[in-house]
Design a protein that fits this description.
binds magnesium ion, single chain, alpha/beta, about 170 residues, binds inosinic acid
Length: about 170
């Protein structure tokens, strides 16, 4: 049996996403921005976040492969879906659901930086900072969560639970 405990409520997510949108709007002050969602986990967060930002925005997605070969032309990271927009000279904001060891974002940041972009920043809904194994600068953080496996609001466990409107910690119970 799986027991789930609410960690972040729907209302708290909405409040924080609004604040992040305001901070991003302020920081880029009218400059166009390309927001790249990391599939699949970031799809709900990205959808809510873009609606709190008042800037000219383009949206794209990238998917990172867990195993096997990908379609990204770089040896840094394996992707199964690459971005499609022309990113040359653009300001990029990578949008992630959760940063754990930091390995995914370090590699993705390198991959995008190699494409002659103007800048690459990172926005994550959740930062599991205590679990970091490699250093990565995260520019916008929704919530810092100490530990546990989280699901909901895009986050999955074996592809389940992504559709929950709040964020839960799941534990196996008897
Ligand atoms: P890392 O930072 O490279 O270790 O990987 C982060 C990725 O691992 C995230 O994009 C998630 O897909 C997945 N992940 C890490 N922790 C969790 C969690 O608590 N719930 C769901 N997915 C997680
Ligand atoms: Mg992910």
């Amino acid at each position: 049996m799986i027991v789930k405990k609410e960690i972040v409520s729907r209302a708290d997510i909405a409040r924080r996403v609004k604040e992040l949108g305001q901070a991003i709007t302020r920081d880029y002050s009218g400059r166009p921005l390309v927001m790249i969602g990391i599939l699949n986990g970031a799809f709900i967060f990205l959808a809510d976040l873009v609606r709190e930002i008042e800037l000219p925005i383009e949206i794209d997605f990238i998917r990172v492969a867990s195993y096997g070969s990908g379609t990204c032309s770089s040896g840094i990271i394996q992707c199964t879906k690459d971005t499609e927009l022309d990113l040359t000279g653009k300001d990029i904001l990578l949008v992630e659901d959760i940063v754990d060891t930091g390995r995914t974002l370090v590699r993705l940041k390198e991959l995008l930086a190699a494409r002659k972009v103007a800048s690459v920043k990172i926005c994550t809904l959740i930062d599991k900072r205590e679990r970091r194994e490699v250093e990565v600068e995260v520019d916008y953080v929704g919530f810092v969560v100490a530990e546990g496996f989280l699901v909901g609001y895009g986050l999955d466990h074996a592809q389940q639970h992504r559709h929950y409107p709040a964020i839960y910690n799941i534990v196996s119970g008897g």
